[in-house]
Amino acid sequence: MEQGHLSGLTGDASGTVWASGVDLAHPEQVLFLRCTVGEWAVSYSSSLPIPDQSEDAWNRVTRTSITRVPGANTLWAVASTGADAREKGFILRRN
User: Fold this and answer.
1) Rounded distance, CA 13 to CA 82, Å?
2) 16-35 per-residue burial string, b: 16 or more CB within 10 A, e: under 16
3) Which is nearest to 64 in space by CA: 75, 78, 50, 76?
4) What angle do CA 79, 43, 34 make, to 5 degrees?
5) pLDDT tens digits along 10-37
6) 76 vs 70: CA distance, rounded Å
7) Which of the listed residues 32, 50, 65, 86 has the most CB atoms within 10 Å of its CB?
8) pTM here?
9) DSSP at 28
10) Which string of DSSP letters, residue by residue, matches 43-95?
C-alpha cells in the first residue's frame, strides 16, 4: 500500500539536503524532509485548500518539487492539489 512519495530534492547554501513530497497521512500538506549530519527531520507546510473531487485519489496534495535560491537559504516549493480541471497550483517559500 502506497504511503506517499518524494518528488523534489535540493541543497541549500549551508549544505543541508532538502526533499519534498507527498505523505498520504497528511493529505492537505506538503512533506519536507531535511537532512543534516546524516539525520532526517520531517516537517509539513500549512494545509492547502483541496478542490472537491469525485475521485478520492485526487483529494490531496498530488505533486511537489523544491529548489533553492542560489546564494541564499531561501527554498521555493511548488505543489498541486486535485487533478484535471479542478487542479490547483501553489508556490511555497521556506526560509
Assistant:
1) 33
2) bebbbbbbeebbebbbbbbe
3) 78
4) 95
5) 998 888 899 999 999 999 999 999 998 8
6) 11
7) 32
8) 0.87
9) T
10) EEPPPPP----SSGGGSSEEEEEEEE-TTSS-EEEEEEES-GGG-EEEEEEE-
Percent of the chain with pLDDT over 90: 58
Report the pLDDT value the prediction gives residue 1, as an integer from 0 to 100. 62
Which candidate, 50, 57, 53, 47, places its Cα nearest to that of 81? 50
Quick one: how far is CA 19 from the chain centroid? 8
If you search the block for the grid coordinates 543534516, which residue do you land on? 36
pLDDT at res. 21: 97
Mean pLDDT of the chain: 89
